[in-house]
Fold this protein.
Amino acid sequence: MKLPFAKENERIFFDGAMGTMLQTEGLAPGESPERWNLFRPETVRRVHAAYLSAGAGILKSNTFGANRLKMEKLGLDPREVIVRGVTLAKEAVREAGRGLAAMDIGPTGRLLAPVGDLAFEDAVSLFAEMVSAGRDAGADLILIETMSDLYEAKAAVLAAKENADLPVFVTMTFDKNGRLLTGGDAVTAAATMEGLGVRAFGMNCGVGPDVIVPILKRMREAVSIPLIANPNAGLPRRENGRDVYDVGPEEFAAAMTGAAEAGAAILGGCCGTTPAHIARLIEAIGEIPLPEEKTGLPAAVTSGIRTVRFGGEPVIVGNRIRPSGAQPEPWDPDDVVDEALAEADDGADVIGVEAEISGGEDAACAAIREVQSMTALPLALGAADPGRLEKTMREYNGRPLVGPVTEETMDRVFPLVRKYGGVAVCLTEKSGGASRNAGERLRAAEEILKTAAKYGVGKKDLLLDPLEEADAGDGAEAIRALKLIRETLGVGVSLGASGKVRADAALLAEAAEEGLDAVFADPGEEDLIDAVRE
């Protein structure tokens, strides 16, 4: 595995806890560490230098909480705090002649709507201010850390991608069972972040090094990007008004060898870890080889708290909330919510929301947010109008299914899949080319893959649908095409995304025998669904 910034087969090590070190220098309980960038800069620089001397390769700038909401309460200019914080890390790197300075971004301290009162785009704006300041100060990468809400992490990643041309790493905080505060699991978080294009993902804070191994193993099976492990030096206990961590350097390093063997490629520490912890960690990891690249992973879509993977039993995508007729009437937002919940009750794995919704983009986004607040299932978003699709993909909490994507819309939809994350369902149908044979549909599939690759969209971000017409002859050709596409191209396949036909049970049962990954159907049609699943 080749890591960002590293030589072949070389690991990268983060530093440890800035706050822990500043406490030894007199940081008072409850005092903002970021203030020291302005009032005790030499101390901050000395801490950075100590971690570099211990062998760390990436310094986290002392900017974790330097967002506008927090800094203005202290009467400080957040941009000044951030620029100074990144500059101090850069100065330490220059003096040492080695290392990188990561612009460190923590959570806003507010809960995002609908759970809290901070709007998604307001969160993006807050993070954008931080990213811009760190970029201008010369940061080498963006580290978004200690996130406990997948939606907030997405806001921060979008801000990073839209305001800086820097690699983005993300670490989130999980409990001992691998769950976020907002309920999502580690696999869902990892799959969503990989879809958004982060260069490395993992965990920090929260728990000690002894409980992270099973969590890392689950993530390792789900994603191909490098994994990060920056745990605390154990769980804290209060002593004289301060958090105290009891896991020393030797115990920390011994536990972290398990993390490296479980698949973590980038390691370091969080609360309670000192230069001694990092030095002993680097020594202990020694010659443990880097994990191999993961290939051939199946496509996956997520909500904020659940993952649905393709490649096993066919996934049922509800298709009742979709256009009907040449000029469909827009759906009422309340009807969309009611129908989505009904599809969930009927057993859908993914709920399709492809219809035009009355009230425009804002109403569509509001309806999708409400659906997401009431069901854990991932959604499929319609791609007929790429402009509206971008708005809904941007505000969607997770990694949605997107489609159907046609020959005419590929060039507008694939950039959205690349930016926001998603799995695109693409029709092999060519303009004016109905009733084509399986070989022609295979060639159309090959063209789709080439176009997707041009926009940075890979095979695991795609499902191809070769069903075109309602007659029995087309169904037989679709089955042959489906088999060819799977065997020749190694990409997932679906049926029914076009919405032209109500695929019958016999056709879908035969398709399932050939490896069908997903079917777009009414989950209330029990005979049809039973035929697929049996």
Q: What stands out?
A: The chain has a mean pLDDT of 93. The radius of gyration is 25 Å.
